[in-house]
Amino acid sequence: MMDEDVENGNLGPYQDRPRIFPAMRSKPYTPLILRILMGVNVRVLIVLLVFCLGAVFYVGARTSPIIVFVFTICIISFLFSIYLAKWVLSKDEGPPEMAQISDAIRDGAEGFFRTQYGTISKMALLLALVILGIYLFRSTTPQQESSGLGRSTSAYITVAAFLLGALCSGIAGYVGMWVSVRANVRVASAARRSAREALQVAVRAGGFSAIIVVGMAVIGVSILYAAFYVWLGVDSPGSMKVTDLPLLLVGYGFGASFVALFAQLGGGIYTKAADVGADLVGKVEQGIPEDDPRNPAVIADLVGDNVGDCAARGADLFESIAAEIVSAMILGGTMAQHCKIEDPSGFILFPLVVHSFDLVVSSIGILSIRGTRDPGVKLIEDPMAIIQKGYSVTIFFAVLTFGASTRWLLYTEQAPSAWFNFALCGLVGIMTAYVFVWITKYYTDYKHEPVRTLALSSSTGHGTNIIAGISLGLESTALPVLVISVSIISAFWLGHTSGLIDEKGNPTGGLFGTAVATMGMLSTAGYVLTMDMFGPIADNAGGIVEMSQQPESVREITDVLDAVGNTTKATTKGFAIGSAALASFLLFSAYMDEVAAFAHVPFREVDIAIPEVFVGGLLGSMLIYLFSAWACSAVGRTAQEVVNEVRRQFIERPGIMEYKEKPDYGRCVAIVASASLREMIKPGALAIISPIVVGLLFRILGHFTGRPLLGAKVVAAMLMFATVSGILMALFLNTAGGAWDNAKKYIETGALGGKGSDCHKAAVTGDTVGDPFKDTAGPSLHVLIKMLATITLVMAPVFL
Q1: Do residues 422 and 515 touch, judged by C-beta distance below 8 A?
Q2: Membrane-spanning residues where (predicted)?
Q3: For a pLDDT cut of 90, what percent of the chain falls above it?
Q4: Are 680 and 634 within 8 A, CB to CB?
Q5: Among candidates 498, 497, 479, 475, which has minimal Cα distance to 487?
Q6: Out of 527, 696, 777, 781, which could bridge 628 as a Cys pair, Cβ 3.0 to 4.6 Å?
Q7: What pLDDT does 10 receive?
Q8: How many helices (H) and strands (E) are present in the chain, helices listed first?
Q9: What is the Cα–Cα distance from 134 to 461, expressed in whole angstroms?
């Protein structure tokens, strides 16, 4: 009917027509596994499920009662997350025009996710073959030889762990996106009733994916550990010792970070290219509001929030937790071996227990955010304060459970007070996390001085806004670095003085102390990820409200939630960097342990005064800058394509501005999707190939100059310098981007001339510059730092 009207040119005013959107739905897509499962009889499924659970618990019971405890908590948490999902999905979707926009967003997100993960899985299989080849032709450690672990067995174990890590990371990302594309419309609909209800729906939707992500990381490592324990007959005479078992899990962390890197790059390029294109033409050139239905790039922008922020951040935090659990297990095992502790399993399984408690305390935090009784109240209190209150509840319980688990697992007769020192290390980590969240909030929330100063600088033009934003970002690196430094040193000393000594009488608990501090920092990861997922869901809800042209009062509520979401996204990035800094320090120590095991010589320090080692460090720092440059320019190039497309549509279809013609949303979605998949390969390949090439080159050089450890030392220096540069670079990029975004939001609340003023246009320019900073290059760097560490762990035998 509409098509005939368009052809005959008798279009009435746009607002008088029913506000419907062209059916952009393709046929709804369900993944193959789900289609197979849906075809199976329900009773058969229940029997299968019970059988699988029985098998998992049987293997767990043969391994250790601690593993059974971890399994039980994970399964209860999964049941809790199903309750959250049911609660969110029981909310209404609002009027039909809201549901239609939401469907278009869901289709775009699921379509891109399918193609992106198709590409990633092909690359993962290729890399798995490479790892298999390398492991089949390398030396084994004396421990492995004594336990009868041949080359082929260790090769297949590493590849299986790598593929399982990659698969779990993919599932974590899919779950994050699955819930966000269904929750956005329900938050938008709830905002028509009250702000508090909208907040609660968004938090619970974020909580669902957060619990699944953390639970997957914990249960994945536990199942691998228990399966290897039973299959290899660990601790029985003549087989492998339990302290060597964690080294077999390094592939899991590498698989997780491999998928997370490409998910973050692809999703980040997608979301920001669409955002920049939509803002530059829509807001600056045409002067229409954000998320206006006349903007052809608006659906692509909203799809980007889901694939870039939800899916990618889910994979990112999954990988943080997985890498940190594995490295802490390796360090715990090494320390227990040096100190000749009778039952080392407590030290090895400690990280799994801490993260199981994380699931419990985060669930309490999520449930502490309640709706209000009376539905008439629109805006009562600041949503940020409510979310912070939930965070404080989580931290309070985290401190209690952390203390309890150190007493339970880290108590040993040789050093009766050691567990208390380690509990203090955990407290250092928890405090570090809290301070990090607070610092980032200070620099990115428009209630505080820095963002207001940045907004004020927009009143004198675009250039001064950019200068102010960059200097704010550079300044914001100082406090976090001081905090990380204090926490690493204090945790190291607490561990060092714990009273644990090796056979020569030297204190050895230092590194394990920093490992425990990292666990403390990540012990509230579930709630932090919930705060993060809240951001894109609120952003999407605002877009749906604007596109379906709801009353101004509803848009005000979603605007407040969106600004809070920007702050929570920035705080999570600060948290992710802090944990990446601590975790990479651990992974670095685990790497040195592994090299020492393969080379049969102690490997404790790296001397930067050796020219080759110094060069390795320089190359590591260069890698960070080159990677960031490629990530940002990828956004720039893709955004240019979007800008040209949006301009073309405005010129060729002048009726769009008068609501007489429909923009072609699908074109922009297609452009961004294909470009981001093409652009993510180059920076990703750079990150994976460079440490391997550097290690091999210097190994050959060392071979000819009679220095067998040269390759390993150069890679160690590369890793150190890349970590240091990467932490600073990521802090700068994340904070500057978040501050620019909220300076724009602050002006949009009516300050300094409000929307549409010259001041606002300068702030939009700043926000556009900050977009690839905070959502593409910055978050990809957290993953890059940890991926370099996990690659070197997996490839260590090659550098010797």
Answers
A1: no
A2: 32-60, 66-85, 120-137, 157-181, 201-225, 245-263, 348-369, 390-411, 417-439, 478-496, 508-529, 574-592, 613-636, 684-702, 714-733
A3: 48
A4: yes
A5: 479
A6: 777
A7: 41
A8: 26, 0
A9: 56
> Phi/psi of residue 507, each to 5°?
-65, 135
User: What is the sign of the dihedral through the CA atoms of 284, 288, 290 and 292?
Assistant: negative
Rounded distance between C-alpha atoms, residue 431 and residue 411, angstroms = 23
The confidence score (pLDDT) of residue 394 equals 95
Q: What is the DSSP letter of 288?
A: P
User: Stretch 635-646: mean pLDDT, rounded?
Assistant: 93
* 297 three-class SS: coil
Taking Cα atoms as reference points, which of 114, 107, 118 lies closest to residue 28? Answer: 107
Q: Is 434 exposed, middle or buried (0-12, 13-18, 19+ CB in 10 A)?
A: middle
The separation between CA 628 and the C-alpha centre of its own chain, rounded to angstroms, equals 17
Amino acid at 712: A
Q: CA 787, 178, 352 angle in degrees (round to 5)? A: 45
Encode 764-794: b = buried (16+ Cβ within 10 Å), e = exposed. bbbbbbbbbbbbbbbbbbbbbbbbbbbbbbb
Q: Which tens digit of pLDDT belongs to each residue from 773-797? A: 998 999 999 889 888 888 888 888 8
- At position 397, the amino acid (one-letter code) is F
Residue 232 gets which letter from DSSP? T
- pLDDT the model gives residue 8: 40
Backbone angles phi, psi at 300, to 5 degrees: -60, -40
Spell out the SS3 assignment of 484-505. Answer: HHHHHHHHHHHHHCCCCECCCC
- pLDDT tens-digit series, residues 608-629: 999 999 999 999 999 999 999 9
CA-angle at 52, arms to 48 and 54, nearest 5°: 115
The three-state secondary structure class of 664 is coil
State how far the alpha carbon of 335 is from the alpha carbons of 405, 502, 506, in Å.
18, 8, 12
- At CA 648, angle to CA 644 and CA 652, rounded to 5? 175
Smallest CA-to-CA distance from 172 within 95, 273, 78, 241 is with: 78
Q: How far apart are CA 451 and CA 437, in angstroms?
A: 16
Distance, in Å, from the CA atom of 183 to the CA atom of 40, rounded to the nearest integer, reads: 28
Helix 195-231 vs helix 65-89: crossing angle, to nearest 10: 150
What's the rounded mean pLDDT across residues 652-659?
87
In eight-state DSSP terms, residue 757 is: S
Please name the amino acid found at residue 76.
I
552-599 vs 778-795: helix axis angle to the nearest 10? Answer: 20
Q: What's the length of the chain?
A: 800
Q: What is the mean pLDDT of the chain?
A: 87
Provide the pLDDT for residue 372. Answer: 64
Task: Summarize pLDDT for 299-341 with one digit per residue, the tens.
Answer: 999 999 888 888 888 888 888 888 889 888 988 888 888 888 8
Measuring CA to CA, which residue among 557, 541, 465 is closest to residue 770?
465
Cβ count near 489 (within 10 Å): 12
Tokens 């080692």 map to which residue? Answer: 613
Radius of gyration of the chain (CA): 26
Residue 466 pLDDT more than 90? Answer: yes
Q: Which residues of 33-66 are buried (b: 16+ CB within 10 A; e: fewer)?
A: eeeeeeeeeeeeeeeeeeeeeeebbebbeebbeb
Q: Which amino acid is at 315?
A: A
Answer yes or no: is pLDDT of 52 > 70. yes
pLDDT over 60 (residue 440): yes
Write out the DSSP string of 2-48: HHHHHHHT----GGGS---------S----HHHHHHHHS-HHHHHHH
Structural contact between residues 620 and 722, judged by C-beta atoms closer than 8 angstroms: yes
Instruction: Specify the residue for token string 């608990």.
Output: 509
Q: Which of 499-503, 732-736, 763-767, 768-772 has the lowest mean pLDDT?
A: 499-503
Burial class (CB in 10 A: 0-12, 13-18, 19+), 306: buried
> How many CA atoms within 13 Å lie on the side-chain side of 631?
35
Helical residues (DSSP H) of 64-150, grouped into ranges: 65-89, 96-136, 142-146
Give the three-class secondary structure for 609. coil
